Amino acid sequence: MSECRGRSTSRIRRAVNNVDLQSFRFWFQFTAFVLFVYGGYLAIDLGNSIPMFSCGYNREGRAGVCYLLPLQHQLARPWEQLFSAAGIAVLTGFGLFFLWFIVLNKGWCGFMCPLGTLQDWLTSLRKRTGIRYSLYGEKPFNALSWVKFVLLALMILIPLGIGGGWFSHDMGAPFCQICPGRVVLPLFTGDTTQLTLDFSSVSGLVLTGLGMFIAGMFLIGSFIKKRFFCFFCPMSALHYLIAKPALLKLKKDGETCTKCGNCFNVCDMEIRAIADDIVKKDAMTDDCTLCLKCVAACPEPGTLKVEFAGLKIFESTEEGFLKRMNKGAGCDGHSH
Ligand code: SF4
Ligand code: SF4
Ligand code: SF4
Q1: Which of 7, 52, 95, 115 is the most interior residue, by most CB within 10 Å?
Q2: How many domains does the chain have?
Q3: Are residues 229 and 318 both part of a single domain?
Q4: Could you tell me the pLDDT band of residue 1, with boundaries at 50, 70 and 90?
């Protein structure tokens, strides 16, 4: 009996490790995109603590709201309110956000975020045109790593400054004014109201103008650079700061790594450490989106793996690697 159960467990494990990750991810991301961009039409409402970009400005279709929108509004309250009972609302909001996040960790980025999915679709479009994509190179890559943390700090400090009376309330939720999600995602439900400039104040005009420019950069940049916006995303920075207790983990066994570089070659975020670092067991870095492409591309048994609450759910195997190579899946490398 237990031998039989063991055999079926190992069959399931083998099937999971042999999965065509490219196609699995495509359908998972597609479903999540439909849910978060159109779910509102089916009266789905997952609240306003969602740990990735499900834009609140997509008024009709949204099935939940990106946490950064309510966070900025809450922090912009006058200080006498913020540092009294209203502060509890900030803590409750953060607690809910944290609960959503703790399950999937940055898997929200690799599998669920509509803005991440859109970037992947633009990459697919570029590939069809045969245009090569651009790489940052190591130095600019390291320099750019800080941008998202600076944006996160500004996204917290500016609303606090509004609440303290240092900045005008016209700025609203300042990050949302410049976020490409505000301009681009409502377009998928035919809502063009965000394609306008706010002439009612100087700060409104500057921020909405900047927002239009960044949305244009998002579309062009994501076409020529994989996950162009994710490098600068303050949500990604916030994720990384709170990722330690999350249940989904990317692990590496450096002792069996041959430094072949396959994992780096398929990594959209150009994370060299995934191939080079043979010391750290926790392989998730600040830019990682937990897309798991590195696990699918690693030929060494058990060298890269994904665990959920300590349980192995997907790991690199020679058989899985060969199957994906033969299908042409999982070899979506830097030469494409
Ligand atoms: S890092 Fe990318 S995928 Fe993650 S929340 Fe930001 S835009 Fe979305
Ligand atoms: S693909 Fe696997 S063996 Fe090759 S460098 Fe990456 S972790 Fe090491
Ligand atoms: S390190 Fe692996 S999981 Fe993280 S972004 Fe790169 S390929 Fe995806």
Answers
A1: 52
A2: 2
A3: no
A4: low
